[in-house]
């Protein structure tokens, strides 16, 4: 009676009552292996893996040839990431091929495959899932995990076929959902650079079931890759709403909040990611090596958020932890250089930047580029940051040479627009005004909404005494950034040069109301007052 109650109550997911019934049965028949096995199965559902393993061990003591007990032992160790003991237990279950209870060897083959997959032993994992499919031809779960093994082997067409077969399989996903197959298919399409189709696959999944948090998180990844940070943020926000404790979704949210300059919210998201459930990769199984890498990414994004908030010492502390975890990560060394630049520790900043470039295989002195094409944009950003360092210490010729190297590697995108804008500033400082104007125009052509580029154009035109055009450029800045004190100063000075003295003075005063320390506006206003006094 108690044994049957234990089993039947466990099937209704009322685990506390089921365990109580199991204990009653065990008190009456402590040497009956099947009761211990049933107790082990219930404990798995409550995620009490150590006790579940202990129950399986007790069953094995009673019946050493019980394959189901060995399989449950395998499952318990796999959930605890004890791969070696998990594999030994599954192999023992399969080699004995004894009593399987209401299960079949497919259960042992499946968990053996999961452990092998987590260890990146893709061919062996695929072989295990093939064994499952010999016993359960249309197992959706086995097909989805075979898709992941084939993805790891770079057998992309086979992987897509397996994921698609999973979606029309028997619908038995175990503790997973159909999202694992959809996300697997999308990830494979990304590997084939078919990102638009990958997003369409995820859209299809979310249209069927909008509560699939893993699919929202994966969609955020793809939209971020397409440089659509606002759309990616919306996807991550949805994933976090469904999985508030999921480290991977929170990390994506943090990264996109950083991209959109919402640094305080980004910092909170990163801290939540670090304190979250430690599951950094979608879909499962979660790989421990990747988890360590993603944890370092979370610290890196945390450092970026702190930098955005002006908390440079705390940001430096965070990024130092990252380079401690991953001393071969060029992005982290490059960001460390940026923080040191903010702290005005220019020598250390240059050394950190140099470390990033060397890790990517780029020699600044000889302009020898051994970086992988996929790293060109990272190298371009590091060269851009290095140029800013030289410009800060008034070494403008060196800065221009570095901007030119960066432009040779950067495609015509937002980064290139920023490089051209800063290129213009360096040229202006060298009084090469025509060239400065041309560089500013290059930036505007790439990003017509760049206030910095329009400001640089106005400054160059003012230096060329083309004040009508300069006035138009500064007014364009103010359309994008109405409270830009520098642009108001430029506008005021242009108006004065055009003889519109009263209007120019009013504009300079408006600039000083926004930034009382704007020295150029102060000087121009004093000069205007002296001019008016002389006229009087």
Fold and architecture overview:
- The structure is a single chain.
- This protein is mainly α.
- Helices cover 76% and strands 1% of the residues.
- The protein contains 29 helices and 2 strands.
- It has helices at 2-11, 15-28, 33-45, 49-62, 67-79, 83-96, 105-118, 122-135, 140-152, 156-167, 179-191, 195-208, 213-225, 229-242, 247-259, 263-274, 288-308, 312-325, 330-342, 346-360, 376-392, 396-409, 414-429, 433-446, 451-463, 467-480, 485-497, 501-514, 519-535; strands spanning 362-363, 368-369.
- Strand 1 and strand 2 (368-369) form a beta hairpin.
- Helix 4 packs antiparallel against helix 5 (67-79), helix 10 (156-167) runs antiparallel to helix 11 and helix 19 runs parallel beside helix 21.
- The longest helix is centred in the middle third of the chain and has 21 residues, at 288-308.
- The termini are far apart.
- 49% of the residues are buried.
Labels describing this entry:
536 residues; mainly alpha; two-stranded antiparallel ribbon; 2 strands
Furnish the topology, listing elements before pairings.
Layout: H1 2-11, H2 15-28, H3 33-45, H4 49-62, H5 67-79, H6 83-96, H7 105-118, H8 122-135, H9 140-152, H10 156-167, H11 179-191, H12 195-208, H13 213-225, H14 229-242, H15 247-259, H16 263-274, H17 288-308, H18 312-325, H19 330-342, H20 346-360, E1 362-363, E2 368-369, H21 376-392, H22 396-409, H23 414-429, H24 433-446, H25 451-463, H26 467-480, H27 485-497, H28 501-514, H29 519-535
Antiparallel strand pairs: 1-2
């Amino acid at each position: 009676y108690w044994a049957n109650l234990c089993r039947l109550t466990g099937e209704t997911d009322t685990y506390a009552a089921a365990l109580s019934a199991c204990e009653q049965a065990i008190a009456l028949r402590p040497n009956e292996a099947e009761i211990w096995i049933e107790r082990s199965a219930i404990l798995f559902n409550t995620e009490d893996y150590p006790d579940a393993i202990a129950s399986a061990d007790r069953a094995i003591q009673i019946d050493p040839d019980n394959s189901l007990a060995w399989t449950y032992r395998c499952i318990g160790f796999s959930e605890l990431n004890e791969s070696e003991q998990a594999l030994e237990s599954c192999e023992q279950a399969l080699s004995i091929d004894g009593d399987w209870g209401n299960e079949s060897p497919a259960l042992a083959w499946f968990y053996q495959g999961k452990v092998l997959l987590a260890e990146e032993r893709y061919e062996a994992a695929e072989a295990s899932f093939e064994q499952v499919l010999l016993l359960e031809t249309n197992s959706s779960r086995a097909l989805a995990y075979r898709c992941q093994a084939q993805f790891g082997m770079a057998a992309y067409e086979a992987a897509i076929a397996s994921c698609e077969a999973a979606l029309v399989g028997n619908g038995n996903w175990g503790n997973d959902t159909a999202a694992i197959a959809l996300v697997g298919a999308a990830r494979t399409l990304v590997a084939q650079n078919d990102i638009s189709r990958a997003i369409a696959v995820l859209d299809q999944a979310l249209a069927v079931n909008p509560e699939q948090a893993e699919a929202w998180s994966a969609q955020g990844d793809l939209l971020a890759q397409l440089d659509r940070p606002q759309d990616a943020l919306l996807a991550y926000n949805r994933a976090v709403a469904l999985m508030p404790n999921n480290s991977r979704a929170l990390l994506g949210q943090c990264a996109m909040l950083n991209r959109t300059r919402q640094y305080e919210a980004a910092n909170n998201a990163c801290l939540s990611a670090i304190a979250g459930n430690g599951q950094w990769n979608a879909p499962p199984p979660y790989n421990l090596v990747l988890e360590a890498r993603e944890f370092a990414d979370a610290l890196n994004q945390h450092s970026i958020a702190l930098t955005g908030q002006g908390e440079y010492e705390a940001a430096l502390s965070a990024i130092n932890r990252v380079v401690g975890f991953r001393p071969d990560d060029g992005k982290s060394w490059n960001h460390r250089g940026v923080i040191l630049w903010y702290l005005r520790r220019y020598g250390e900043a240059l050394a950190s930047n140099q470390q990033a470039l060397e890790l990517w295989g780029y020699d600044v002195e000889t302009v020898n580029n051994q970086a992988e094409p996929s790293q060109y944009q990272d190298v371009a950003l590091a060269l851009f940051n290095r140029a800013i360092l030289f410009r800060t210490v008034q070494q403008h010729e060196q800065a221009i040479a570095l901007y030119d190297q960066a432009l040779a590697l950067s495609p015509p995108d937002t980064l290139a627009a920023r490089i051209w804008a800063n290129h213009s500033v360096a040229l202006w400082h060298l009084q090469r005004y025509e060239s400065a104007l041309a560089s500013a125009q290059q930036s505007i052509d790439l990003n017509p909404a760049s206030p910095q580029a329009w400001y640089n154009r106005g400054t160059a035109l003012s230096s060329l005494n083309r004040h009508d055009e300069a006035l138009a450029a500064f007014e364009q800045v103010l359309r994008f950034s109405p409270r830009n004190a520098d642009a108001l100063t430029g506008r005021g000075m242009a108006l004065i040069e055009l003889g519109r003295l009263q209007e120019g003075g009013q504009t300079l005063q408006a600039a000083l109301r926004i930034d009382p320390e704007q020295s150029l506006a102060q000087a121009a206003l004093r000069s205007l007052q002296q001019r008016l006094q002389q006229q009087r």
